Amino acid sequence: LNRRLAGMGTTIFAEMSALATTTGSINLGQGFPDTDGPREIAQAAADAVLAGRGNQYPPGPGIPELRTAIAEHQQRFYGLAYDPDTEVLVTAGATEAIAASLLALLEPGDEVIAFEPFYDSYAACIAMAGAVRVPLTLRAPSFRPDLDELRALITPRTRLLLLNTPHNPTGTVLTLDELTAVAELAVEHGLLVVTDEVYEHLVFAPSAHRPLASLPGMRERTVTISSAGKTFSFTGWKVGWVTATPELVAAVRTAKQYLTYVSAGPFQYAVAEALRLPDSYFAGFRTDLARKRDLLADGLRTAGFEVYEPQGTYFITTDIAPFGEKDAYAFCRALPERCGVVAIPNSVFYDDKEAGATQVRFTFCKQDHVLEEAVLRLGALR
Ligand code: PMP
Ligand code: GLN
Q: Is the CB of residue 179 below 6 angstroms from any atom belonging to ligand 1?
């Protein structure tokens, strides 16, 4: 393993999911639902396979039906107009979109500012691009970005802001004021922004998701990333996308060509249908998740955790300090033995080890009876 990837041997998600399997624990670690998405969308994927649609290499940028559906989605929910032919790119999940964007847009030595705790692939992809990550630390209990600190982190070498809203793992959803401040800094300093909005539809009232690209001066400098995995509960399909200007999409497409060349064909037909589901689907999904959030949050609080309420995503960040615990990673490794539950230590997503030392993340995208059983087990910790 080269020096760039030193210490990144196995992702925390793979490690903790393996631990859940070997110990037979309830897995509230890795974020994937235990119930698949809409039946008619699964049927659309099966139909595409059997009808021979997409079984051979689809077009590199993605099938036209899906690119059109993505453009229509951006218009329908945010009033953003993108040309499906030149301003949309289909990727192998948001993960490839992140990798291709960073590999395409960064020069070695460029600085990238990202909120920490960061999603684990950010650090790896910045490293693979030979660039330097510069964390802006989100601190408990509010996990709001300090915008003066952000301003102070910008140097002549800063090339790009890597944003994530709604934010994994803290559940922070940036407000319009915060987005405006970020946008003004990006314009003032001529920065590109790559914004990971995979949880765009997993936001709880009164919070609302607003794409950064919709702010003044941002459309031309923003690469927006999303994915079908979270919104439609098909994380295994790995269909993601990028929307941006023709120049930026062309750059990202260049990198994508040599990573996966194209993305899996039949699922693209199914996701095109999913993006056109009625508003009631998106609203129902959110309502259901909000209830699960409350179920898990209440249970964790009763069990003795300090709970930080998320405004979005399907994760809850907690603090284990009330148990007298000092090390989230050690806690998570021991948790399956102690009570048969798996969680994720946020500490691994921070460069500032102090800031995240006692934070532990739980997911609530599970059936109610699973969450109830997990809460019962966690109740035995004290
Ligand atoms: N970004 C964030 C913030 C995520 O939480 C995830 C989901 N693991 C991804 C990107 C990756 O999405 P995908 O599964 O579509 O590659
Ligand atoms: N995004 C999911 C999470 O944060 C997992 C993705 C992965 O395993 N890479 O839990």
A: no
- Alpha-carbon dihedral angle through residues 291, 295, 300, 301, given to the nearest 10 degrees: 90
User: Are both 343 and 240 inside the same structural domain?
Assistant: no
CA of 275 to the centre of ligand 1 (A): 18
Asked if 88 contacts 62 with a C-beta cutoff of 8 angstroms, the reply is: yes
**203 DSSP 8-state letter:** B
Supply 189's token pair: 């300093």
Of 100, 367, 45, give the one whose Cα is nearest residue 244.
100
320 close to 308: Cβ distance less than 8 angstroms: no
The confidence score (pLDDT) of residue 208 equals: 98
Residues 134, 44, single domain; the answer is yes
Pocket of ligand 2 (CB under 6 A): 11, 13, 30-31, 168
At 193, give phi and psi (nearest 5°). Answer: -130, 130
Residue type, 227: S
> Which strands form 359-363's sheet, in the order they lie side by side?
306-308, 315-319, 359-363, 344-345
CATH code for the domain in which residue 302 is found = 3.90.1150.10
Distance, in Å, from the CA atom of 293 to the CA atom of 26, rounded to the nearest integer, reads 17
Count of the separate structural domains present in the chain: 2
Distances (CA, A) of 40 to 228, 247, 283: 15, 36, 18
Q: For 54-113, what is each residue's pLDDT tens digit?
A: 999 999 999 999 999 999 999 999 999 999 999 999 999 999 999 999 999 999 999 999
Query: Which among 193, 213, 167 is positioned nearest to 106, based on CA atoms?
Result: 193
Ligand 2 mean position, distance from CA 11 (Å): 9
Ligand 2: residue of 13, 202, 234 to mutate (most ligand atoms within 8 A of CB) is 13
pLDDT of residue 130: 97
Residue with tokens 């631990």: 19
The answer to whether residues 291 and 368 belong to one domain is: yes
Note whether 183 and 254 are same-domain residues: yes
Which one-letter DSSP state was computed for residue 37? S
Per-residue pLDDT at 9 exceeds 90: no
Neighbours of 259 (CB within 10 A): 12
Range(s) of the domain holding residue 370: 3-30+280-378
Q: At what angle do helices 265-274 and 64-78 cross, to 10 degrees?
A: 30
